[in-house]
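To whoever is covering the structure queue this week,

Two jobs came back overnight. Logging them here so there's a record in the thread.

Job A:
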Amino acid sequence: MMMMNPTLSHQYGAFISQTRYGEIPTEALEYGKMLIASTLASSALGSTLESSKIIRSLEVARGGHPESTLWFGNWEPIPAVAAARINALMSDAAASDDSDLRNIVHSGTQACAAALAIGEKVGATGREVVAAVVLGYEVAGNINTAMIGGLQRKGFHGCVVATFAAAAAAARLLNLGTEGTAHALALAATSMGGLHAAAATSLAREYQAGNAAMMGVNSALAAQLGYTAELATFEMKRGFFETLGVNPKAAEVIGELGDKWCILTELGIKLVPGGSPFHAVAEAAANAARRGNLDVVDIRKIEFTLPDYPFPGPKHPTDLIGIAHSPFYFAAAGAADRDYSWEHAFPEKIQDPRIRSLFDKVFREDVEVPDKAKYKSGAIVRIETVDGRAIEEHIRYPKGAALRGITWLEIETKYRSLMPHGGVAPQQISESLEAIRELEKLSDIRRFIDTLWPDRA
């Protein structure tokens, strides 16, 4: 446990700047590397989407000092803050990045985009980049825990929290120390906005994600030049926590920083596309359909229960934004195909008449689950058949959840499935994945970028 500092900004700043690599749990460091692979893979798919292309063209046209690499496409060197923005936006656009399984906060995307951009700018080692990712994730996760019950109920999107992952990772790699890092976080706290409702229905989702990375990195760069902010921003009257929402046990939660690592309990890396709260719906539906040997024509009704997630989502989605937030699609797709995988993010599956024929047979059943505390983005699915059978499946937490254990084989499958969408050749996919797995051995993170882009001058 760290000694208490005068403000929460100082306390967070001390944790970020003073925690040594050897003090970070080995499993947390391994998950940090997995987050890097996951973020790149998700960005590869996201690079093909219109939202990414628009903001990419905007930043490339704006230009600036060539500090960091804009991933995929022409691999343009641009300012670090712009690279962090676009790379994070691409990752979020594909709805295939990471999630805090308690609510929609994709801190790994911001931590990785910022750490790789600033790491490349300063020539950081692979070990330094991994530590920055994990520490950024932890600070954002701790702030998120201190706000559970407040953030989304007030209408704010998780990017308001995820921006701290970017600010913390950037501050760590810029060696800002406790004071400078505290100011970077205070600046980030007053920089970011985002509406949950807009993100659920439009391209505002990834726009906010890009802004979260951009503003986090910008806050750290401003603090490096001596820009200061109100260091009591988090705890002051009408400050960050009071305005956006605070957990009654926030003081206890913040005091656990450095003792409990949320990356080991709250992390969910998406191993299939769409919102993490609904992955378990698809898995449970697929399990039930397999167990009953069901075809679409055999299904009379599908009921699902989400013990710890209150938002309903659209019932008849027609595009990636819609299906990403629709448990109805997850239930229908899982039951129709007895599986749910990366192909379900593409128009062919979204418009598949077999899947869509089940939409009006899928119903949300909101009931009190006796052992609700044992679920984390879990689901209960019950399929009733035309011949009178009822098949029920329970999933406590989805694949890719730290609590369930995440394997490199699962990450490799995702990486090899999605990286080709970014135009990365098979040899570069293999070499870059191997480099990520041994990232702590790299003396300069720019050598990792070279494995993705061998023609780099």
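Job B:
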Amino acid sequence: MQKYKAISILFFLIFFTPQPAGAAVDYRVEQKDTLWGIALRFQKDLQEIINSNPQIENPDLIFPGEMIIIPDHGKKIAIPKMGENENELMRLANEKRRELSLKPLSVDLQLNAEAQKKSSDMMKLQYVSHNSPTYGNPTEMLRNQQISFFTVKENIGAGYKTADEMFAAWMNSSVHRENILNKKATHIGAGYCQGGLHGHYWTIFIVEKNEGG
């Protein structure tokens, strides 16, 4: 059967649960580091890193040798296992937001994991829909993992071979573009899966969390 491309529409629901606080660790900035890259590497909230380092006057400008505080939340720090496609989608989203003077979205490891599950589920069960036969709708899916959020918006797609192609398709859709550029959004997670009927499956969750979460 011939492969084809597909994207799906906005999904928007509400759910909230509290999250714990924790300690912090120090990190010495290396060559070519950015706060975005450091947040991605340490699985942390970008805005929390910014808030924890008031000495940084310009978050887009940090220097090798500079010491910054990484909020720990009591969790073990580890390098996330994310592929280039997921990282590129999140980079493109934040690049576009910065162009429009919008706050960048923080990487959320739990959202990444759920987005990966959704893309894999679409690939295995050969569908492109916000309502998963396995996980239900996006709110049900995140709620079942006890992920805290006020709102969740989901962009999905299939058949697009690269992150650039998928992102361009979303930006050419008013609904998907609005999701990515939502002014109240705070966090993002992305998942990519290759194979199946359409060859390539993409998911991003864009959520609004409380200031502490």
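Note for Job B: The two ends are 45 Å apart (CA to CA).

Please reply-all if you pick these up so we don't duplicate work.
Q.
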